[in-house]
Amino acid sequence: MEENRLNERKDMLLSLMNEKEYVPMKLKELAILLNVPREDRESLKEVLDALLAEGKISVSKKGKYAKAEVFAQTGIFTAHHKGFGFVTIEGRDGDVFVAPDNTGGAMDQDTVLVTVEEPRGDRRAEAVVVKVIERANTSIVGLYQKNKHFGFVVPDNPRITMDIFIPEGMDMGAISGHKVMAKLTSFGGPGKNPEGVITEIIGHVNDPGVDILSIVRAYGLPEGFPEDVMEETEVVPEELTEEMISEELKKGRLDLRDLPMVTIDGEDAKDLDDAVSVSREIVDGHVMYHLGVHIADVTHYVKEGSCLDKEALKRGTSVYLVDRVIPMLPHRLSNGICSLNAGCDRFALSCLMDLDEKGNVVGHRIAESVVRIDRRMSYTEVNGILTEEEGKGPAPEGTDGLIPMFHLMNEAAGVLRKKRMSRGAVDFDFPECKIILDEKGRPKEIKPYERNAATMLIEDFMLAANETVAEDYYWQQVPFLYRTHEKPDEEKIKRFGILINNFGYSIRLQNGELHPKEIQKLLSKVSGSPEEALLSRLALRSMKQAKYTVDCTGHFGLAAKYYTHFTSPIRRYPDLQIHRIIKENLHGNLGERRLSHYEKILGEVAVWTSSRERLADEAERETDKAKKVQYMERRIGEEFEGVISGMSNYGFYVELPNTVEGMVRVSELDGDYYVFDEEHYEMVGERTGKKYKLGQPIKIQVVSVDRYLKTIDFLPVREF
Which residue from 308, 341, 504, 688 has the fewest beta carbons nearer than 10 Å? Predict the structure, then answer.
């Protein structure tokens, strides 16, 4: 059927089904209504199938067709390794359950068309997948298993529940035990596995680094940069010359090279986005702090529409995996000319703020600048200077002249922090982990990252700059990208309130809404208690995810009306994007044409970069989980003390001090039948009355691990 004729018939059918008088009809009834001869009904079926594939119409279980919203809705299918799944439908509260027989061949993260059977009585809503609209998985990473004349790939993603059949001659010579990438040639059907061809042999499952490389492939993370990007990179200067600097100074760039400033980062950081400076004076008897946050001027080298720019947008963010960094920009930029390396002249975008003694920004200037960093400092070094910890010894060599500035920075940061806390900002303080690998990529130590005076100081300064820039550009009414964090869902907050009641805490709602100050008060109350880390994490889970938007709707967690991401353009595309807007504005180049251009592109940039951020977070979590499982695999039989961190009908989770989490399965608990009391978040033995409660300290033994599912199983240690 030619395309024009097909489109005409689709339009006609859509028009018919959108009429008020239309009632859902079967194929035969539609054919009679439209005077379609029996021999042409197959053509009518093709038109209906095309409309179904586009999600424009729906079909009932009895084969009746109607407009899309009558029988079907579009959503994202999330599979479970046991065969069932859930569909997330935009605008609908909660996911909808899909039974194993009703998945319609959908695979994890496919976009699907579903009919929803609404809940009746105690029954929950259930969905039936009637059509897969868009496939999310065109290639699969997994473990190859070779038979005599064919093979199978067992997907690494446990939510892809069927093995991929690899016909003879399509395996690239892979052997059993190889981790491979397979491109799907067929998605299978009832009783038939998907089929594919192997396109890459990643390495043997036991080879060093193959586990992480498999995750890189599975998430579609890039490694090398395309040739055209590298060609552009080659013409970027390695260092600034006086001629380059002089030319920029003539255009109005500030020369701040004589202003004392430092970078403060982790010991292993290589891409240094930000430097800080501070001074203090007394004005009319009051203290005034002059705070400078100086950010790498990446857009000076990454021009809009260039190959570098397109690749940076495509990546969206740098990804920090346990054994490698996948940068947004090539190393020549990220570790070279853009990185604010000590003793080197660098172009920057500076946010110069005047703070009063209450932490209010009473004046500010955003300007292009030239900076020269006096000293690269680590968090450990600065924390040692600020806290004068015993055993730290003297300050690092060559920093004596900077010590007063570090104490002044700490003072200014304390003023900013006090103001932020007074308005109700939530300060989550639970440990993240650092996984240390040996030379073969095996985890030899897992320890929590601890926040200290130096990390908090930098946080305070970066937050101040981000808020200042966001407020400035909001009131200028210029198209911009903001970092927004919506208020939590009422239902999630109610559940959280019930949960914390079990610990003797409560939160107060005002007109049904939660103010971030209430979360802050709760975290303050639980500070130092055994349940502190647990309740902090549960509070965070009850909130929505922050994202990038073109509307400035505020940041709930920071209790901030205006917030953006300005401080990390080497590793985040939104920061780079707003730098470009700021610089155009500073030079008076934001005319009607450019404003219209940004109005047009920023919505897509916000959605895309938010999705890339989530993908990077998931990949980082997966690599951490893989290494934690490997670490505990060598500790089977050992005993540890932890805290019960989560519960479900299947059992409860225990988190160890090093952030490793494992599960105690109800089916493995000896001597009693345990029931999950959801209202009080506790597991109760029916015969003995023994209880396991959320937040309870517990001693466990490591009994097993599953590398495939990335899970760890614990058992409580008997108390005699």
Answer: 504
Residues 520 and 539: beta-carbon distance below 8 Å: no
With tokens 């960094």, the residue in question is 325
The CA R_g of the chain, rounded to the nearest whole Å, is: 29
Outline where DSSP puts E strands in 499-593: 547-549
Element (H, E) at 315: helix 307-315
CA angle 317, 132, 13 (to 5 degrees): 120
* Contact in structure between 565 and 577 (CB atoms under 8 Å): no
User: What's the topology of domain 3-134?
Assistant: OB fold (Dihydrolipoamide Acetyltransferase, E2P) (2.40.50)
- Is-contact 265 339, C-beta < 8 A? no
Per-residue model confidence as pLDDT tens digits over 113-152: 887 776 766 677 788 888 888 998 899 999 999 998 899 9
What distance in Å separates the CA atoms of residue 237 and residue 223, rounded to the nearest whole number? Answer: 23
Residues 444-480: tens digit of each pLDDT: 999 877 788 999 999 999 999 999 999 999 999 999 9
Residues 534-544 have a mean pLDDT of 80
- Return the pLDDT at 390: 43
Residues 6+ apart with CB under 8 A from 397: none
The distance of Cα 91 from the centroid of its chain, to the nearest Å, equals 21
Tokens of 483: 């970092």
The pLDDT of residue 378 is: 92
Separation of alpha carbons 347 and 480, rounded Å: 22
pLDDT in the model for residue 391: 42
- Residue that has been written with the tokens 């909001």 in this structure: 474
* DSSP code string of 578-630: HHHHHHHHHTT---HHHHHHHHHHHHHHHHHHHHHHHHHHHHHHHHHHHHHHH
Tell me how far apart the alpha carbons of residues 112 and 134 are, in angstroms, rounded to a whole number: 7
What are the distances in angstroms from CA 645 to CA 174, 652, 677? 42, 7, 15
Q: What was the pLDDT predicted at 625?
A: 93
Instruction: Residue 72: count other Cβ atoms within 10 Å of its Cβ.
Output: 26
C-alpha torsion 327→328→331→337, nearest 10: -140
pLDDT at residue 716 above 50? Answer: yes
Contacts 24+ apart (CB under 8 A), 288-291: 288/354, 288/355, 288/356, 288/357, 288/362, 289/354, 289/355, 289/356, 289/408, 289/411, 289/412, 289/415, 290/352, 290/353, 290/354, 290/355, 291/352, 291/353, 291/354, 291/355, 291/412, 291/461, 291/464
Where along the chain do its domains lie? 3-134, 139-207, 227-484+557-623, 490-543, 635-716
User: Among residues 229, 216, 221, 224, which one has the least CA distance to residue 310?
Assistant: 229
Domains 3-134 and 635-716 are alike in CATH topology = yes
Q: Tokens 């979360």: give the residue.
A: 519
- CATH fold of 139-207 reads OB fold (Dihydrolipoamide Acetyltransferase, E2P) (2.40.50)
pTM: 0.84
Pair of tokens at residue 434 = 């650092």
Which pairing describes strands 254-255 and 361-372: parallel, antiparallel, or unpaired? parallel
Question: What pLDDT does 121 receive?
Answer: 65
Residues 280, 415: Cα–Cα separation, whole Å? 13
- Cα(104)–Cα(77) distance, integer angstroms: 11
CB proximity list for 142: less than 8 A, separation 6 or greater? 153, 154, 155, 156, 157, 163, 164, 179, 180, 182
Helix count and strand count (H, E) for the chain: 17, 33
CA 625 – CA 601 distance, rounded (Å): 36
Question: Do residues 336 and 351 touch, judged by C-beta distance below 8 A?
Answer: no
Q: Which CATH architecture has domain 635-716?
A: Beta Barrel (2.40)
